[in-house]
Amino acid sequence: MLVLKYSLLGLLLGVLCSEASYEEIFLEDLCNQEEVAVLNLGSGNANSSGIIAASRNRTFLEGQNCTVLIQPPLGYGVILSVRHLDFRPFYSPRCLNFVKIYGLHENDEICLCGYSDDATEYQSYHTDGKALQLNFITVNKTETRYHSNFIFVVTSYVKLHYMCEVKMFQCENSRCIWKGLTCDGHNNCGDQSDEFPHGMANCRSLNPGTIAGIVAGSVIGSLVLICISLACCRCSRCKKSQTTEREPVLIEPASSYGSSTARGNIQEPEASEPSSSYGSFPDLPPPYKP
To answer: Which residues form the signal peptide (predicted)?
Structure first.
C-alpha cells in the first residue's frame, strides 16, 4: 500500500513537472508603474508564452488609458488568443470600455469589447515578425454596471521555410512554437493544431515531455520510499537495543501460594515414634508367681 501511494505521488509530480508553466501578468500592476509597459517574450522555452489579464480580483478598473507592448525575439511574431472578455455595458458600434490591438497582420488595429467566454480560445490574432501592442481604455466611473475583465494568451512564434527545430512544434499553419506548449489546453498555434487529438500534436497519447516527467516522478517516489524504509529500520534497531538494556523484572508469587487450598493437596508426613541408634529393647518377661 505504501509503495502504491508513493508511486502515485511520483506520477503526479512527474505530470505536473512536464506541463508548461504560464506566467500571469496583470494590467493593473503594469499600468500603475509606467505609461507604456513592455512584456518581453522568449523563444523555445517556457518564457515564450504568458497570460495577460486585467486584474486579480477587481471587476472594473476605472479611468484606464494604458499601453502594453508585447515584444517577441528578433524575427518572431506574436499570437494572441482570447480566453475571456467581459466589457460592460456594450453599445454597438461604439464601446465605452475596450482593448485595442495594433500591429496585426490582417488589420492595422482591432477593437475588442462585449462578452465572450471560450475555453477553446478559437478567436486569435497574430503579428508577422514584430511586436503586438495593446491599448486598455475604460471610463472614469465607479458604477457597478461597468465591467472591464479579459484574459489573453500570448505566444511567440517563428515561421520558417523549412522544418522547425527539434525543440519546436510545427503547427498546421506552418508556425513554429515551443514544443512544451502542446496539449496544455491553450491555443498557442492560433489554429488549435497544438491541441488536436491527432496529427503532429497527438494529444490523446503521452508526449515526450510527459513521459520524461513521469520517469522523473517515479524516481523521486522511489527515493522517498527508500528513505522511509531506512528510517524505519533505524527506529526498529533503537527499540531493540532499549529492550535488551532493561533491568530484570521481579515476578511476585501468586496470591494462592501457600494458601489452605494449596496445602490441602499436599499430604503431611505421619508422625513416627522416636527411635534410637541402639535398636529397641525386648519386652520384659512377666513377673514370677510362686
So the answer is: 1-20
Closest CA to 24 of 42, 39, 36: 39
Instruction: Return the number of other C-beta atoms located less than 10 Å from residue 191's C-beta.
Output: 16
pTM for the full model? 0.66
Q: Is residue 240 part of a domain?
A: no
169 membership: H or E segment, kind and range: strand 168-170
In-domain check, residue 66: yes
Give the separation between CA 231 and CA 241, rounded to whole angstroms: 16
Provide the CATH number for the domain around residue 105: 2.60.120.290
pLDDT in tens, the chain (290 residues): 444 444 444 444 444 444 567 999 999 998 876 678 999 999 989 999 999 999 999 999 999 999 999 999 999 999 999 999 999 988 767 889 999 999 997 777 899 999 999 999 999 999 999 999 999 999 999 999 999 999 999 999 999 888 999 999 999 999 999 999 999 999 999 999 999 998 889 998 655 555 666 767 777 877 877 878 777 777 776 666 655 555 555 555 555 545 444 444 555 555 555 554 445 555 556 665 55
**CB neighbour burial string for 269-281, b if at least 16 within 10 angstroms, e if fewer:** eeeeeeeeeeeee
CA angle 144-148-152, nearest 5°? 155
Is residue 199, in this structure, part of any structural domain at all? no
Q: Which residues contact 263 (CB under 8 A, 6 or more apart)?
A: none
Total count of domains within the chain: 1
φ/ψ (deg, to 5) at 282: -75, 160
Distances (CA, A) of 235 to 2, 3, 225, 228: 18, 20, 15, 11
Question: Domain range holding 42?
Answer: 21-158
Amino acid at 94: R
Residues 177 and 277: their CA atoms lie apart, in Å, by 123
Assigned C-alpha cell, 248 = 530484570
